[in-house]
## 1
Amino acid sequence: MAQRSDIVVIGGGIIGLAVARRLCLSGSAVTVLEQHRTGRGASWAAAGMLAPHCEFDEADDPYFVLCRTGLERYAGFIDALREETGCSIDYNSTGMIYPALSDRGQARLETRYDRHRRDGVPVERLTVREARRLEPNLSNRIHMALRYPADHQVENRDVVTALARSVRLHGGVVREGVTARKIVLDGLRVAGVDTTDGLWNAKTVVIAMGCRARYLDGVSPAHRIPVRPVRGQILALRAGAVPPFRHTIFTSEVYLVPRSDGRLIVGATVEEAGFRNEVTLGGVLRLFRGALELAPGLESCPLESTWSGLRPVARDGWPVLGATGTPGLFAATGHGRNGILLAPLTGDLIAEAILHDKVPTVMRPFLPDRFYPAGTGETKDDRNR
Ligand code: GLY
């Protein structure tokens, strides 16, 4: 017999769970269908940086504005999740340090500093001495550094665990091991989802399947979401009882994220490898080299583990958020390097779109119709972010 739900969310990663929680809080009957285990895909693989100021050069980029809005909501979101679930969530608001390792890197950071100051981005310029006073384990070969005090980081695995609990506590259904096969239509409208566990009737369906979003059958070819996987390899060092850094250390090549459990996360490669979700010798080598260049003292740290994940990246590099051209079908994917950061905001935005038929200004550039042949949205060149 068919099962039914007001809303079905396909995908139990951080985005699907954040959307589901938000809809549950508004009183909707929500079911999350997860092919494997909740939160064990890209959401588990991530390093949890909440770092729009480090990640973006330009403050007038709409994607930066989206990410900064996401960051503004994060601390409140974590407080609410802790309160709702009793889960502990490792959250670090010390900030991030972005060092330059060459003359060219320094020139780039000096330009960035001037531009960010002009645009009101919170940033500090540090001499080598100042940077090493804050973080003595940084290499003495750095040229200078920028400090971004408003960038944070969170243990993403804590967040997805708490989110799944919150959805259930608020009456949502979370089904693991159920694969969505096909969107079922009634005329032009969504009527449900055909799954490996039978049919789910639902008038509203959210596609939050990460990098697999384009492969859902039943969606009109014109409305498919053009996302692809971009692999990130990552590793954890066992750094000891005292974390080697208080800040997250960020460069465009590698980042070092200190966890309060004594691990130091070293991430991440950015690779076009299709769906090959695997760790390679070359990938790990690049991470080792990058980490040691930033902090030679890490040489003696035991290697704890390595893993990889597949970021969902849209054709133009921007998230894909909101109503698709198929009535009742919504997209929430394509978050690329910023899925952990954007999860709470995505939950709010998709809930606004579903429950109130609203497109908040910050979401407008990210509507799926920008990809449609005769869409009303802006069509952009590939940005390859
Ligand atoms: N958030 C950084 C990354 O995806 O590697």
Note: The chain has ten helices and 21 strands.
## 2
Amino acid sequence: MGAGRFAPSPSGDLHLGNLRTAILAWLFARSTERKFLMRVEDLDRARAGAEAQQLSDLAAMGLSWDGEVVRQSERSNLYAAALDGLRDRGLLYECFCTRRDIADAPSAPHAAPGTYPGTCRGLTEAERAAKREMRPAALRLRTEVGSFTVTDELHGAYTGVVDDFVVLRNDGVPAYNLAVVVDDGIQGIDQVVRGDDLLSSAPRQAYLAKLLGYGIPAYAHVPLALNSEGKRLAKRDGAVTLAQLAAEGIDADAARAVILASLGLPTSSIDAALAAFRPASLPTDPWVFTTSPDARGTGKPIGWPS
Ligand code: GLU
């Protein structure tokens, strides 16, 4: 049996957009007889108390997960072992570039913005030794392709850049792209459902999964929630977390109903939604969520039951 997952970063409260992605990940996993795992991505950006609040909000949505919650901060040995294996194969190199160095470096014609230009790829040992005196090194993957194609349930075949991306940051923390691939591989995740802001990371991750001998998961990058200005929904947009909504008298059941309605699913319960869930009929446009008072003058955000 395969598994899907939700992998929040415990940087603060989840908002309706995050909760909607979590519900979708759960629906995708449960409707395909997969396990559903919960993994807290707390290698950085962890804020005290945020994990407990996020898990309780996810449970309030009616979501359940299999097994214990896994925390990345407790898995350093797994990331170190993966890095050792890559190092032994000659697939890592030290990089001393600052963001500025990368921005200022001449890039190959037609290179996608942010593509690492390869500055440190060919340094001699003497050059590296000199640079180590100046600043700690990050480790990059020595890649052999320029791009890689993944298949996404909502986006079809998606080809994206695979540059020599960072796998260990220069502060010693495993990079997101490494941790996520190692965890998905070891946890037997064969279905990755997450926000479509991460679609462009999928080719790098799939390429690394292949290098590490893991299967490449099925992907579904789902549309994000946007505010009334078309920008990514954020907590400052008003009543968008369960705590903020509760203060307005809107409970978790009502919040879940609004999310399910936005997906075109029955709103009575999460199980009713599961029974009706068909990936092919999901809306593919972003969910525009507006919290301005509606025309009826109830003071409640548009979309809320009055
Ligand atoms: N932790 C990431 C986030 O909260 C998600 C990573 C993933 O699903 O691959 O944005």
Note: Residues 7-9, 41, 180, 194, 198 surround glutamic acid (CB under 6 Å).
